[in-house]
Amino acid sequence: MTTVASERVTAYTERFRTFLDEDVAPLEEELAGRDAGSPSAPRFDEQGRMHPAVWEARREVQRRAGALGLYAPHNSTDVGGGGFGRVEMHHVEEFVYRESGLGLGLAALAWTEGPNPAVEHCSPAMREQYLTPLITGEITTAFCNTELGVGSDVLAMSTHAVRDGSDWIINGTKGWITNSHFADVLQVVAVTDPGAGTRSLSMFLVDGAAPGLSRDRALPTTMADGLTGTLEFRDVRVPAENVVGEVGDGFALAMSWINWRRMCRGGMCAGWGRWLLERAVAYARQRHSGGRPIAEQQVVQHMLANMDADVYQARATSLVAQAELDELGPFAIPLHREAPRLISLIKVINDEAFFRVADTAVQVRGAVGLVQDSPEEKLFRVARNLRIPAGTSEIQRNAIARGLLRSPAA
Ligand SMILES: Cc1cc2nc3c(=O)[nH]c(=O)nc-3n(C[C@H](O)[C@H](O)[C@H](O)COP(=O)(O)OP(=O)(O)OC[C@H]3O[C@@H](n4cnc5c(N)ncnc54)[C@H](O)[C@@H]3O)c2cc1C
After folding, report:
1. 398: Cβ below 6 Å to ligand 1?
2. From CA 139, how far away is CA 159, in angstroms rounded?
3. Which tens digits make up the pLDDT trace of 222-269?
């Protein structure tokens, strides 16, 4: 078991740094010249969606990163990804979030709009049509699981698909979907066998231009990114080859996607946490009160020490847990019985530690920390958000407790 960055991680981060300097920086400069807002504080169009110029700048970064093989290091090599394990991805994610801050560089590493472990289970026809272009950043996707009436209680969803010959007909509404406005292909989870528990759901790939699909209203959230909305499926017909995995695999595949996002919290929170800590230390050194830098006030020193302690412990948890998960198979279907507890430990410890870090980062700056869309203010809102999507903190504690109580040793 290793928690150390491999040589290929070092090679990747070196290439990523060059990409930030040579590709991302000029695109960022160009975007700043438009009246469109920034990647972390975009303006919106009349329908509440991310301003097209910001969206297009992100897409250009994704396409270029895809062409250079930087966009999908987490995907397996047999589908064109980098084949990195979870410890390697922690190091990659930490580097990307720390170096990019809130800039356009974040778009260069696949996020929820990109290729994921679940979509790798698609049919050969879907691989050619959607998976390969996802890996190269030519198209984007959205994971359509949650409904307005059902979030945590996934098995209670009402969107359903029924067979019609060799096709499937999908009906239902999905809500709170990231990238709902723009996705070229949708990963839709729907009921195919009501009452069959964890085998009741299936995952389908639905083309973004499919008849019967409507992209409804934007749902503005505290993220203020113009990316979240609702989708309606009215008699949307898809052929059998659009089923991901087997019929009945939907719950396991949805969990594979969700677990991917949960594990990503380790590197994300470590990267942003260290970025906020470095900014807080620099600010405390130069801001004066009573004729002395506030860094000389013991109470401010303790704020910095608390941030350091939170970043350090959450990062260490992530690295150790991801190393254990690399051995168990983080995306195996069926998943090893010890894995859910470890995955939820990564998410809850990182989300909650990062919330304290972001809160303290605001406090160290006083009023300056509350300036709208400043890095500290924006990341405070992001940190608050993190404790809800991909499973709330309460759902993580349920999974941790289930893991403890199941084990005879505990
Ligand atoms: C910005 C944003 C982006 C999102 N992106 C996506 C996306 O791309 N795709 C997607 O499918 N979904 C997405 N979601 C939805 C997200 O995954 C859900 O909001 C989340 O799973 C919680 O579901 P809910 O909001 O319905 O809350 P609920 O499930 O209604 O929970 C409400 C409260 O009850 C608690 N609770 C519920 N059930 C239990 C239980 N069994 N035990 C203990 N406590 C419980 C919760 O912890 C919470 O505190 C996104 C949400 C947001 C805010």
Report:
1. yes
2. 25
3. 999 999 999 999 999 999 999 999 999 999 999 999 999 999 999 999
Rounded to the nearest 10°, the torsion over CA 361, 318, 92, 96 is: -10
Q: Is the CB of 385 under 6 A from ligand 1?
A: yes
Q: Which tens digit of pLDDT belongs to each residue from 163-210?
A: 999 999 999 999 999 999 999 999 999 999 999 999 999 999 999 999
Cα distance between residue 148 and residue 341, in whole Å: 27
Reduced to 3 states (helix: H, G, I; strand: E, B; else coil), residue 70 is: coil
* Domains of the chain, CATH where assigned: 7-115 (1.10.540), 141-244 (2.40.110.10), 251-406 (1.20.140.10)
**Quick check: 410 pLDDT over 60?**
no
Instruction: Calculate Rg over the CA atoms of the chain.
Output: 21
Ligand 1 atom nearest the C-alpha of 144 is 11
pLDDT tens-digit series, residues 50-76: 999 999 999 999 999 999 999 999 999
Q: Which two tokens stand for residue 76?
A: 């397996």
- Is any ligand 1 atom within 6 A of the Cβ of residue 281? no
Please give the structure tokens belonging to residue 20. 């930030």
356 contacts 380 by C-beta, under 8 angstroms: no
Ligand 1 contacts CB of residue 152 (under 6 A): yes
| Rounded distance from Cα 190 to ligand 1 centre (Å) | 17
Confidence (pLDDT) at 409: 58
Ligand 1 midpoint to CA 370 (Å): 27
Can you tell me the distance from the alpha carbon of 300 to that of 269, in angstroms, rounded to the nearest whole number? Answer: 22
Neighbours of 282 (CB within 10 A): 11
